């Protein structure tokens, strides 16, 4: 049985006060044991999370890391620092990083390797643009993004974290992928790993869907056989909607 993950990506939103309210609400909420909850606040609030989340079931991490363990990289943070603050997870290759910071597949693979080297669990984000989908290239684009990471860390490395399928056209648009579209691409992702290790693909690889997940559409998405939870942006900022989405994965 693959344990579901519901992860919240706050992006560059929030404040100390909002983060504290969120931590208090999460600490007091009844959580389903079969769902792993992970929150990715801005790194500025990681320490606040470490000090104020008092439930076993709630984990947190950072939205990015530098591929080097340390050095002269102004403005960046290392995997070791994230772990030092109590983070267990890290997002890698989010489409906003790929677009705004020109991160390519090779850099994403190097970051995944760096995360694993310090014991962080990477959530590798993959997904096609609308133009790529219209050109019938979506499956090839996503499989290529994943293969570069697989070449770098192997199947065992990949399954230590998770993969998030996030079609770029569905992020922040309110237009989620249809459950069947998500299921089809999650099948492609699982198959890309299965070619190298069928048992790990079937039993251990967790593939999350991301892109306009809400409390209203989460259950339909999460009930697809190849969808193992979600990566939630906007709807993860308030504990109430985040917990409602988590409940849909239970
Ligand atoms: P969204 O973002 O839920 O606001 O669409 C998802 C993401 O980018 O991780």
Task: Report on this structure.
- 44% of the residues lie in helices and 16% in strands.
- The protein has 250 residues and is of the alpha/beta class.
- The chain has a single domain, classed as TIM Barrel (Alpha-Beta Barrel).
- It has an eight-stranded parallel barrel, surrounded by five helices.
- Strand 1 (4-9), helix 1 and strand 2 form a beta-alpha-beta unit.
- It is globular, with a radius of gyration of 17 Å.
- It binds 2-phosphoglycolic acid.
- 2-phosphoglycolic acid binds at residues 9, 166, 171-172, 210-213, 231-235.
- 2-phosphoglycolic acid is lined by residues 9, 166, 171-172, 210-213, 231-235.
Secondary-structure map:
Layout: E1 4-9, H1 16-28, E2 35-40, H2 46-52, E3 58-62, H3 79-84, E4 89-92, H4 95-100, H5 105-117, E5 121-126, H6 130-134, H7 138-160, E6 162-165, H8 179-194, H9 198-203, E7 207-210, H10 218-222, E8 229-232, H11 239-248
Helix pairs in contact: 5-7, 7-8
This protein binds 2-phosphoglycolic acid.
Essential attributes:
alpha/beta, TIM Barrel, 8-stranded parallel beta barrel, 11 helices, binds 2-phosphoglycolic acid
CATH level-four homologous superfamily name: Aldolase class I
> What is the subunit organization of this protein?
single chain
Largest sheet: 8 strands, parallel, barrel
Q: Main sheet: which strands, in order across?
A: 1-2-3-4-5-6-7-8
CATH class reads: Alpha Beta
Look at the helices and sheets and give the structural class: alpha/beta
- Distance, first to last CA: 13 Å
Q: What letter string, H or E per element, gives the SSE order?
A: EHEHEHEHHEHHEHHEHEH
Radius of gyration (Å): 17 Å
Give the overall average pLDDT.
Answer: 97
Specify the helix fraction band. 40-55%
């Amino acid at each position: 049985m693959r344990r579901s993950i519901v992860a919240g990506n706050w992006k560059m939103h929030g404040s100390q006060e909002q983060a504290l309210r969120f931590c208090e609400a999460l600490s007091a909420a009844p959580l389903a044991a079969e769902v792993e909850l992970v929150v990715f606040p801005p790194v500025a609030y990681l320490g606040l999370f470490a000090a104020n989340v008092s439930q076993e079931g709630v984990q947190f991490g950072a939205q990015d890391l530098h591929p080097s363990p340390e050095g002269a990289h102004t403005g960046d943070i290392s995997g070791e620092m994230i772990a030092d603050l109590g983070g267990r997870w890290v997002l890698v290759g989010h489409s906003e990083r790929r677009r705004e910071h020109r991160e390519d597949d090779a850099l994403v693979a190097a970051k995944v390797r760096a995360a694993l080297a310090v014991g962080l669990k990477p959530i590798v984000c993959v997904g096609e643009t609308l133009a790529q989908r219209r050109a019938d290239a979506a499956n090839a684009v996503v499989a290529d993004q994943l293969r570069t990471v697989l070449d770098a860390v192997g199947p065992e490395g990949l399954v230590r974290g998770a993969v998030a399928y996030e079609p770029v056209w569905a992020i922040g648009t309110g237009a989620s992928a249809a459950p069947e579209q998500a299921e089809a691409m999650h099948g492609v992702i699982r198959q890309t790993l299965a070619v190298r290790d069928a048992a790990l693909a079937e039993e251990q690889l967790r593939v999350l869907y991301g892109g306009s997940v809400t409390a209203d559409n989460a259950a339909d998405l999460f009930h697809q056989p190849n969808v193992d939870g979600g990566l939630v942006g906007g709807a993860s900022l308030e504990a109430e909607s985040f917990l409602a989405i988590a409940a849909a994965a239970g």
